[in-house]
Amino acid sequence: MSAALGERFGTGLLSQAAAMIYTLLVVEVLVLVTAGPGVALLALLDRDASNLPLAALCLLPAGPALSAAIYALHRRRLDLTDLHPGAAFFRGYRLNAAGALQVWGPWLLLISLNLADPGAAQWIVIAVATVWMLNALVITSLFVFRLRDVARLSAYLLIRSFGVTAGNACLIVVALAGVWLWSEAVLALAASLLVLALLSNARPLIAVVRKEFVQ
């Protein structure tokens, strides 16, 4: 009977909800620890084009942090008796930091260059580059591919998984609205929720990569 009670405690609906909340909170704290200092410095910068290079440097640590969050939340457990989100986060950080920077860094540079003198064409480039980056960050966080293969897959899946692309575009709009209405700090404080939404939206993309490109 005690085993049955333990099983119900660890896997019941309330326990699963508690496990999810705990996992999100732990991942959120770790994102803030690893990327928060840069975001805090970013909030102190004047919103001027001359500060774009500094803004990019401030945001550089966020790439590996988000990649680790993707890794940890993708491997989340909903059993209260078997929760290790912190260990999963640091494992993801260790495994994927370099790959994430190879995706995140060039994206930040491209965004900085296009925001320096934005026009209609620059905004289109920013939009396409950002949805591509989200695909690439998910792929490099969950799979092992060479950078050039990540880049190609991410571009290919913009069309192949168009529903994912549209969903990511909606996430970008939500994120921009948060920054516009409040500040960049809102994104940092909601990082784990945004990553969870990104992962939920990316499930078809992940399934395609696993089925067609992973041997």
Short description:
This protein has helices at residues 2-11, 13-44, 52-59, 62-74, 85-115, 120-142, 147-160, 162-181, 184-189, 191-201, 203-212. It is mainly alpha-helical.
Largest sheet: none
Order of helices and strands: HHHHHHHHHHH
Distance between the termini: 44 Å
- Overall 3D shape: globular
Radius of gyration: 18 Å
Number of E-type strands: 0
> Based on helices, strands and strand pairing, what is the structural class?
mainly alpha
Beta strand %: under 5%
In the predicted model, the low-confidence regions spanning at least 5 consecutive residues are 1-7
Q: Which whole number gives the mean pLDDT?
A: 89
Number of helices: 11
Helix percent reads over 70%
What is the topology?
Elements: H1 2-11, H2 13-44, H3 52-59, H4 62-74, H5 85-115, H6 120-142, H7 147-160, H8 162-181, H9 184-189, H10 191-201, H11 203-212
Helix pairs in contact: 1-2, 2-3, 2-4, 2-10, 3-5, 4-5, 4-6, 4-10, 5-6, 6-7, 6-8, 8-10
Question: What does this molecule look like?
Answer:
The protein is mostly helical and 215 residues long. The protein has eleven helices and no strands. The radius of gyration is 18 Å and the shape is globular. The termini are far apart.
Notable characteristics:
83% helix; disordered N terminus; 11 helices; 215 residues; globular; mainly alpha
